[in-house]
Structure to design on (666 residues):
């Protein structure tokens, strides 16, 4: 940013001008009320304006804007959207201002049109996902799409004639999720360009984070969103430029920080939850209700609406959180569970802010979709998360877990804004790791790591494009589970206190920035004063898991009767990645137990043990301390085994199950 913005007084003055201008411009762009809406009963949420914004006399400010920018605000959105429940359509206008953060002129803008992922079975998303995400399937005959009705410069020049869809990842001409817009003139370094668009979105039945369930609507990835532009050095880039990807079956999202001023028009009986906070009371006129929300230092904007929301609001503060409003938008089926939702939200916010850094926003909204709404559930957006659908009146601890997980994404996604296209583990694994800590600290639910490691049947590199995994199962087991186990393995080596320092330092060093895996490795090395190349090359950049095996046991008798002794020869091999300590337990037939440790550096080691009785059995890692060991069955061997079983199959399984089922289930 240019030198003018280095002066903090000037920064504040400009922010206030932008805020005032945002309200004026949004009022000018608000779509006229239409007769598209129907009247349905609703619960009401109070709206509150923010200071510094033109407001009516009876409006009282409840939320405050940040005194100065917390992030480099590259984007600025002013949007108006009207929802028509009879057609399931969103009609919107957008004024987008983009600042060139680089050092070279930029000739083209790129917009993500995410709803086009659902326009046919031929899109890249649908081909890769097979029309399924998690356990939710796209409804037969239900399509989603986005039509850009106009694209113009601020002075009215039409840009639509030259724009074209591009497919940089796979060349699929049936995919229309990324749009290239050639500009009339280049945008120089530090300069800005503003374009105005009108768009129409056809919502699908709730699937893959957006859509409708009856009269509930989830608007995620609903607007033309400018792609992320990476400066030199960002995530290791050697040249600056756009980070361009289509919408894939596994991938989530990546964007630059900015400011959003958004008006949402719905039927008058609807309540709207959204990113940010309302800046003035909702206006009811001609059967419609118009909300206006404002958010800054965020990189996305989502909203949800329903005539049935049961609205609950509670203020919350801790030593690390000056004050935040927790806003709960319950489906009526879960109205009696409000205390569970609020407790989980408070404990998650408190713990994450204590461990990593403060939650800097004034609101946190939690949306509970209706039964059948899991396609819109379990998702995170800045200052707004969604729970699982309210189909079960008495859900188990998954209710708390999903809230804890999605709020964790406010930190490792919302604030530490890594690239979910290319390094998804930096969001999902880090959030899963933090989620486990909260669930253990607040609910006494510990993760069953041996079981979780056994799920890793197809390990793959964590630093790769999300769509490079062969399917969603491989994606999920690596970026969620294996990535989390990698963090736990680091913790095992350095200790919990040092790991806490690592995670806190990583968060605070990269808050409001866009870190890479290498940036995290640098933090680990800075804190531990040790090189971690071998570990990261094997388990992060590589596809290794730990795999130590008892290969053979041979026993021969020494001496004569009355002075018997036996020499037992045991071969242990390394079939996977390294571990600095490999515990091995030797059990003799007279009950004697001998524990040894191997540094695991070589490909194998042979032990020759002389004792008055022969070896009965050998077990590697009897306490299951090797976090990344995923083939426990070959950790155990008994000397005498029925030949028809070859080696260890049933006994190894029994030993494994006996151990892990003694743990608390996760």
């Amino acid at each position: 940013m240019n030198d003018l913005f280095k002066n903090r007084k000037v920064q504040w003055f400009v922010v206030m001008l932008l805020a005032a201008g945002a309200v004026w411009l949004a009022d000018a762009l608000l779509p006229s009320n239409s007769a598209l809406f129907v009247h349905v009963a609703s619960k009401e949420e109070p709206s509150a304006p923010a200071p510094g914004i033109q407001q009516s006399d009876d409006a009282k400010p409840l939320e405050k804007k940040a005194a100065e920018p917390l992030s480099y605000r590259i984007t600025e959105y002013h949007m108006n959207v009207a929802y028509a429940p009879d057609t399931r359509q969103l009609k919107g206008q957008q004024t987008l201002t983009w600042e060139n953060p680089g050092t070279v002129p930029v000739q083209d803008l790129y917009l993500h049109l995410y709803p086009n992922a659902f326009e046919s079975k031929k899109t890249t998303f649908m081909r890769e996902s097979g029309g399924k995400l998690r356990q939710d399937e796209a409804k037969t005959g239900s399509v989603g799409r986005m039509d850009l009705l106009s694209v113009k410069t601020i002075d009215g020049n039409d840009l639509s004639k030259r724009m074209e869809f591009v497919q940089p990842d796979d060349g699929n001409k049936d995919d229309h999720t990324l749009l290239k817009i050639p500009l009339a003139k280049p945008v120089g370094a530090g300069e800005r360009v503003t374009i105005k668009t009108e768009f129409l979105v056809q919502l699908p039945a709730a699937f893959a984070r957006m859509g409708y369930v009856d009269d509930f609507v989830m608007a995620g990835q609903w607007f033309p969103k400018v792609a992320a532009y990476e400066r030199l050095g960002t995530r290791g880039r050697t040249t600056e430029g756009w980070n361009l990807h289509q919408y894939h079956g596994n991938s989530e999202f990546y964007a630059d920080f900015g400011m959003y001023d958004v008006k949402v028009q719905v039927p008058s009986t609807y309540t709207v939850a959204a990113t940010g906070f309302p800046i003035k009371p909702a206006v009811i006129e001609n059967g419609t209700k118009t909300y206006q929300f404002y958010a800054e230092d965020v990189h996305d904007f989502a909203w949800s609406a329903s005539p049935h929301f049961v609205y609950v609001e509670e203020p919350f503060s801790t030593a690390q959180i000056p004050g935040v409003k927790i806003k709960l938008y319950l489906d009526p089926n879960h109205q009696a569970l409000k205390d569970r939702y609020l407790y989980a939200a408070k404990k998650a916010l408190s713990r994450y802010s204590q461990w990593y850094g403060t939650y800097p926003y004034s609101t946190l909204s939690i949306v509970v979709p209706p039964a059948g709404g899991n396609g819109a559930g379990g998702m995170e957006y800045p200052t707004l998360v969604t729970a699982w659908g309210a189909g079960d009146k008495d859900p188990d601890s998954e209710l708390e877990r999903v809230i804890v997980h999605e709020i964790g994404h406010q930190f490792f996604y919302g604030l530490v804004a890594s690239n979910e296209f290319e390094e998804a583990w930096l969001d999902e694994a880090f959030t899963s790791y933090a989620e486990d800590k909260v669930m253990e600290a607040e609910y006494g639910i510990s993760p069953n790591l041996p079981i979780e490691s056994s799920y890793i049947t197809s390990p793959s590199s964590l630093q790769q494009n999300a769509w490079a995994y062969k399917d969603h199962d491989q994606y999920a087991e690596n970026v969620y589970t294996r990535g989390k186990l990698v963090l736990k393995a680091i913790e095992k080596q350095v200790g919990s206190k040092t790991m806490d320092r690592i995670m806190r330092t990583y968060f605070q060093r990269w808050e409001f920035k866009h870190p890479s895996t290498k940036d995290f490795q640098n933090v680990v090395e800075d804190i531990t004063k040790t090189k971690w190349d071998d570990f990261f090359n094997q388990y992060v950049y590589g596809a290794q898991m730990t795999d130590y095996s008892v290969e053979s046991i041979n026993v021969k008798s020494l001496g004569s009767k009355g002075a018997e002794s036996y020499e037992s020869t045991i071969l242990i091999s390394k079939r996977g990645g390294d571990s600095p300590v490999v515990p091995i337990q030797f059990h003799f037939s007279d009950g004697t137990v001998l524990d040894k440790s191997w540094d695991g550096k070589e490909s194998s080691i042979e032990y020759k043990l002389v004792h008055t009785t022969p070896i009965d059995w050998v077990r590697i890692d009897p306490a299951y301390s090797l976090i990344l060991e995923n083939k426990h069955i070959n950790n155990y061997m008994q000397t005498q085994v029925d030949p028809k079983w070859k080696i260890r199959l049933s006994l190894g399984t029994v030993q494994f199950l006996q151990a892990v089922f003694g743990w608390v289930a996760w």
